[in-house]
Amino acid sequence: MNIRKRALALCIAATLAFSGGAQAALAVGAATPDFTTEAAQGGVAFKFSLAETLKKGPVVLYFYPKAFTSGCTIEAHEFAEATPKFQALGATVVGISNDNIETLKKFSVEACRDKFAVAADNGARITKQYDAGLGFVPGMADRISYVISPAGKVLYVFSSLSPEQHVANTLKAVAQWRAAQK
Question: SS3 of 88, please?
Answer without folding.
Answer: helix
